[in-house]
Write a structure and sequence with these properties.
The structure is a homodimer. By secondary structure, chain A is an alpha+beta fold. The first copy, chain A, is built from twelve helices and 17 strands. Chain A folds into two domains: about 210 residues, CV3147-like domain (CV3147-like fold); about 140 residues, CV3147-like (Beta Barrel), CATH 2.40.390.
Chain lengths: ~375, ~375
Amino acid sequence: MAIFGPKYNQVGVSLPGVAGKVDSPAFDAIGVEHVDALVRGCAVLGAGGGGDAYMFKIMAELALSETGPVPLVSLDDLPDDGIILPLAMVGAPMVFAEKILSGFEGLTLKAAIEDALGREAVAVMAPEIGGGNGVLPLAWAARLGLPYTDADGMGRAYPTIPMTTMHLAGLPVSPAVIVDARDNVLRFDTCDNFWAERLVRGSTTQMGAMTSSVLYPMTAADARRSTVIGSVSKALRVGSLLVYGTEGVSRAVDELDAVVLSVGRVVDIERRIEYGWVRGSLTVEGSGDFRGRLLHIEIQNENLVALEDGKVMASVPDIITVLETESGVVISTDRLRYGQRITVIGFAADPIWRTPAGLAVGGPRAMGYDFDFVPIEEIHAHA
Amino acid sequence: MAIFGPKYNQVGVSLPGVAGKVDSPAFDAIGVEHVDALVRGCAVLGAGGGGDAYMFKIMAELALSETGPVPLVSLDDLPDDGIILPLAMVGAPMVFAEKILSGFEGLTLKAAIEDALGREAVAVMAPEIGGGNGVLPLAWAARLGLPYTDADGMGRAYPTIPMTTMHLAGLPVSPAVIVDARDNVLRFDTCDNFWAERLVRGSTTQMGAMTSSVLYPMTAADARRSTVIGSVSKALRVGSLLVYGTEGVSRAVDELDAVVLSVGRVVDIERRIEYGWVRGSLTVEGSGDFRGRLLHIEIQNENLVALEDGKVMASVPDIITVLETESGVVISTDRLRYGQRITVIGFAADPIWRTPAGLAVGGPRAMGYDFDFVPIEEIHAHA
């Protein structure tokens, strides 16, 4: 698997060398010095989506430099009935990079949802650890003076609101609130989570294909049975391995037990903003060991499916991530360009997504594809 | 003007013969026996829009037969700080006739807006007296046990939310709430009234082109300076004159000092549901005194402009209403069909709409037409 040479020579941000998953945070707090690792780790887990993290990285660094470190808390450390605020951007990642946030959207969201619930929040959570949506809530947490929760609702990034572990656990998206830069504040109490998607997406499209949101407000007790535990620690760990250069890619591949699906050059990219999402496809012409092979990737905010000669090489819910080969920097779907020299990796999603219930919501058929999911390690068992 | 014979032989519903406008209600309460006159009067004031009243008529009759009469109150009878609920349908009138309401939507709307304002409502108002939207709030008022206010926010019907006298007076649409039959409840706190239109319309389109709404919640003190006073009394008065048959049309024409724009047959009707509105156009081939003449009417929920040989015969904000010639029944824009024998009348809007501020919001240019408003009595001064 290690095609990039030596591995595990950990440099960059100093993190404990945690080998497996963790049930409690690897640290007590996230300071400005950890943001870079968090950004890179979230990008790898993001399957190309969740928004390009560049703006959010700057926002988080600015916030933390002003407020000091944000405590990273385990769900076990929060009171059973403490309200957790899952904060995220909704919309098309291409827009996130163009419309700059104030960084204080969390204050409006918190006030509106506390008004709806009649109770105060005790912590912020990323409902989507992947991409910029794993980083931005940290900036909001800093501004709110609330801790960041070491968990998320996907363990990756996904394009629609019901594609969360909270939904699988039967929790409602409502009451939900979205806000925009004009101070429009919309609150949704919907009949189910699919209507939440439809209505939040529709309004977000009206509001410029980008809103800040609180979705699935819940108690810590509910969060313990409905989230992917340790997501932030995992992102920090992976991000700390992903040092600049091919070296970093190799380390991340090993850490994630990932499959390298292609090393080559972008020869075709088609991308459009369609109803609040980025949609399109990508073709990679292989080089080196992959010479003479074409990998085709289909996109809806995230990289959904990788195909070669019509054969599925990886698909949702497993995670397909594109990195720039030379630098090891993850390229989100909104940043893909013709001619980029990239490495495409794929790795297993959180096991919850491979259950029948998980596949019904986040598997290939849920995305409109007419094939059954096969775990990436089975597809590539011959390798 | 009276082309239909004898006039002012008042029959039908028994109403005081009020000749001019009233500043206080002509009665103390509206009972089931008054609904028919209210429906017909609102239809005439509706310019073809505000929704076909048939379903709403049945709902109002059912509600009043169960609850007894609803008090009709003057704004002067309400406490200065009493909250008034302007309740209405938003969406495409064609849909209102197909999706049947429960009649209890007002309870959800009232609860949500009282939660937003932290205060209880004292009365219901029709923000739009024209068409079904002048009738439905009466049914809701009955179910809520609240009085109905003798005022509205248009004096007619109009297709967009900022086209109200409340908007002209500087009152906000927000906080606004919309609900649908699935129990989706959306609350809007928007940066201005145009964004309220955009976001409420967008969500309504998602929710099936029809929602029940509370818009512009306000105190009685604010309502006194921002509404068309006496609208319900006027609708009742006009409706009581509009007895079945050509006789009724003649009486209404006289009462309203209306111009008969055409008597003839519908020879072309083009209509579609477009983004939460009914849009289209109508062509009337004249007969009798109008033989050899074609009248063309353009529609956006309401009849906006009447043209003959390219010349404007009447336009917003003045009110253009289509009645079935034989019966005197108003035909709303969603009920127009090829071959109907109709009489088209036009009459003056409330004077507020003829001011520069009123025309800027509700005049022909606000509707996208490239001509200045001329009052209907000036256009037809030669007649």
